[in-house]
Amino acid sequence: MPESLGTGPKLTVWLVALLLVIFLLIPFFGTAWKSTLQLDPARPNSYGEFIGGENYRDIFWNEPEFSTSLIASAKLVALTTLQCVLACLLAALFYLLWPRRLPTYLVLLLVFPLLISPTIVALMGRLYLNDQIGVITKFMRVLHLLGADEAPLGTSTGAWFWIAVIDAWQWVPFTSLLFWLCLRLVPERQLEASRVDGLRRLYLARYVILPNVVVPASVVVLFRMLEALRAYDLPQVLTGGGPGTSTLVTSIYATRITFTQQRFSMGAAHLVIIEVIAYVIIMVLASRVKSLRGVVRKGAE
Amino acid sequence: MKHRRGYSSVLRALVLTAATVIILSPVIWFVLVSFMNYEAVLRGIPSFEDLTLGHYKDLSIRVPLGRILTDTFVLALFSALLAALLSAPSAYAASRKGGRLSTILYTTSLTTWLVPPVAFSLQIYLWFIRLRLYDEIGGLLILYTVINATLIIILLTPFIDRIPKHLDEAAWVDGLRGFRVLFEVHLPALGQLLLAITMLCFVRSWNELLFATVLTDTRVRTISVSISSMLTGSHIDWGQIAALGTIALLPALLAVLILWLIGGARLWRRGRNKGAVKL
User: Fold this and answer.
1) CA B171 to CA A286: how far, in whole Å?
2) Are B226 and B63 in contact (CB under 8 A)?
3) B123-148 average pLDDT score
4) Which of A2-6, A95-99, A191-195 has the lowest mean pLDDT?
């Protein structure tokens, strides 16, 4: 019956499944295996030997930048959580103003920053924060927020502040759109019923809207956290991990030790650690896949 | 009551204006910088005499603009199209088959999409060197196709869930099998959506930086890599970089335009089809 797909589509599905498995599972185990070998070009005599957990021990004890990069990434993840709070407030505002559908213009506007490459967003950031011709720099100097010999990205605090602002510019609009879609998931009937019952607004928010929204909204937050964990383009182009190592997030640090310094096994150990952290978040997320599908479906409206 | 309505329409206008200013002004200034000479950028307030195409001319001398654009365009276009061809049936299977296959396909796509790409980079880099795909356009094409395919499965499956199953049954009774069900029953319903998602894939491949940096050297150059490498020298020519950045912005602008057209068409169709089967 219609349950069967037919030969053509079935072959395609298998091909895709195979490709996915190749790209998902094999690199993971391959990387995990490499992380137990000695692949440091500085020690050619024992190159390729199996050394077990030594790379992991090295990375935790002899690589101070490793913990720096983990902290930097944790900071970025924390920042996205703050962004989510802001986006939630915006979504609530949108919901109060446009309970049924958002104007097409606004939707396009909210999607637009996300379509721009993070490279270009970071580039704009560097242009506006440039210490000679930057518009924001000039403005800050006029307001005496910045000394004449200082650059906005010159200090660790400054760099973090502007990463937060620029990342928020790119992500908060779209996140608020997602939260608005979550709010739209509240069944019309329940809203209607509470209106008939004359429920006060606060009670409506607490007992009708919140229970319907909390799971899909948590999916959005998890999704943002993962996005922050993979962030590479923005810090790479905006600050290059600096000043010093203050914004050296894991992705940049990992590519640096793996590809720039060619310390493959050390890099591999690091990549495995990143991947395991990501898997933990994904596992929580995957248990909520149903409601993710729901949020995406609402996007059709 | 009337008073409140007036109040909220003022608030709406305010929100729309604020959103427009915050989101668009940095982009507009950036595009303007690419058309202004350096003195005007320093001064801050441009006039008509400052407008120039000089940065674009200088840029085309400094970098192989034609090759960068062809490489990036070919990569983005074909990876998006291939991904759409491959993954539309998979999304269909993930939606229709239900049960374990659906869960596996959907969860695997989701995981592949969400794991930080840097985690795959080492193994893929080593494979590419062994398979002679390093610094070749074909290698990146395969990689982007897989990444895009996962995105299409993630986004398309929920929409296929919404198409009533009796459409499939009707197609079966009419004797349609295999790909023809997809092409003749589902494609008309999902066409615009698939177009929008494919375009999203195009834009994402166009913008990609990490793999393009790691897996290419000199023979393949994408626009993101060019921009990031122009930023590393001691002297940074902001006019030229803004010019290249503006060119790199074009797909995003085009995408917004297409989304806008699709949105308009959907509204129009919804008005016309009131009472018909709602997809």
Assistant:
1) 33
2) yes
3) 90
4) A2-6
> How does pLDDT run across A202-218, given as a tens digit for each residue?
888 788 888 888 888 88
Say if B206 is an interface residue toward chain A (CB within 8 Å). Answer: yes
A297 interfacial to chain B (CB closer than 8 Å): yes
Q: What is the ipTM of this complex?
A: 0.84
Per-window interface: B 259-278 vs A, CB < 8 A: 259-260, 263-264, 267
B42:A133 CB<8 A: yes
Q: Which helix or strand (DSSP H or E) is residue B36 part of?
A: none
Which of A91, A78, A75 is CA-nearest to residue A239? A75
Contacts for A190-195: CB closer than 8 Å, 24+ residues apart: none
Q: If we measure between CA atoms, which residue out of B243, B120, B179 comes closest to residue A19?
A: B120
Q: Residues B166-202, buried b or exposed e (16+ Cβ, 10 A)?
A: ebbeebbeeebebbebbeebbeebbebbbeebbbbbb
**DSSP per residue over B158-223, as a string?**
HHHHHS-HHHHHHHHHTT--THHHIIIIIHHHHHHHHHHHHHHHHHHHHH--HHHHHS--SS---H
In chain B, residues with a C-beta closer than 8 Å to the C-beta of A130 are 238
pLDDT in tens, B51-82: 888 889 888 888 888 999 999 999 999 999 99
Q: Which residues of A touch B193 (CB under 8 A)?
A: 300
B177 contacts A274? CB cut-off 8 A: no
* Yes or no, beta carbons of B86 and A15 under 8 Å apart: yes
Which residues numbered 175-214 in A keep a CB inside 8 Å of some CB on B? none
Please judge whether B27 and A124 are an interchain contact, meaning their C-beta atoms are less than 8 angstroms apart.
Answer: yes
Per-residue pLDDT tens digits for B209-237: 989 988 988 888 899 999 888 887 777 88
